[in-house]
Design brief:
The protein is α/β, with parallel strands linked by helices. Helix 6 crosses helix 7. The protein is globular and about 50 Å long. The protein starts with 7 loop residues before the first strand and ends in a 9-residue tail after the last helix. Its EC number is 6.3.4.20. Belongs to the QueC family.
């Protein structure tokens, strides 16, 4: 695939199926993809290994892991080992919500994009089959895009940043079908919030349930699950 030298994008890459799909979509659009993952004190660090595999298989120009010590603030079952990851559906915003996570991630990605001369930031948020996190909504993304263009040298000098969320209004099944059409290997991905020491998904957390629902509705088996 031909990629223009000046067509660069920063792609937030968690190692899950959504971020693997947006990497493929960004590549399809001809972007030189600079993939960015975060070690933020999450209990499911296996996603970083998955992210590296996805970046390599997906043709990322480079893949970097930023270490952010935000786990100390607690408040989330993903960073506080004193809180349990729910194994059944809950009401309201679940305890797996990490305070301001996407805002922090996008801020770091924005800084890197400005240095790279990239104007597009891809994030795999979804407002259809998701856990109800407030930083996955279209109005949040619009607000951050406005901030990005107000708060940066590139923005005030006439550049224009775009927060790209191509999966925002898709179901998990639609996301999976789109990724398969682009050759995404979902066997490399990890979505689970509480995998075991061998990196195997628990199958019961919210992320696992949404993933299973998506593959079932797409009518294809999940290649990450050993038969």
């Amino acid at each position: 695939m031909s990629v223009a030298d000046d067509k660069k994008a920063v792609v937030l890459l968690s190692g899950g199926l959504d971020s693997a799909t947006i990497l493929a979509l960004a590549r399809k659009e001809g972007f030189q993809c600079h993939a960015l993952s975060f070690d933020y004190g999450q209990r499911h660090k296996g996603e970083l290994k998955a992210a590296a595999a996805v970046a390599a298989a997906g043709g990322a120009h480079e893949h970097r892991v930023a270490t952010l010590g935000v786990g100390f603030i607690g408040g989330s079952a993903l960073t506080d080992l004193g809180l349990s990851v729910p194994q059944a559906p809950t009401t309201g915003i679940p305890v797996t919500y990490v305070p301001a996570r996407n805002t922090v991630f996008l801020a770091v990605a924005l800084g890197w994009a400005e240095v790279l001369g990239a104007h597009d930031l891809f994030i795999g948020v979804n407002a259809v089959d998701y856990s109800g996190y407030p930083d996955c909504r279209p109005e949040y993304l619009a607000a951050f895009e406005t901030l990005a263009n107000l708060a940066t040298k590139a923005g005030v000098e006439g550049g224009r940043f775009h927060i790209r969320a191509p999966l925002l209004h898709l179901t998990k099944a639609e996301i999976i079908r789109a990724g398969l059409g682009l050759g995404v290997d979902y066997g490399l991905t990890l979505s689970c919030y509480a995998p075991n020491d061998a990196g195997q998904a628990c199958g019961a957390c919210d992320a696992c349930r949404l993933r299973a629902k998506g593959f079932a509705e797409a009518g294809v088996p999940d290649p990450a699950i050993a038969i």
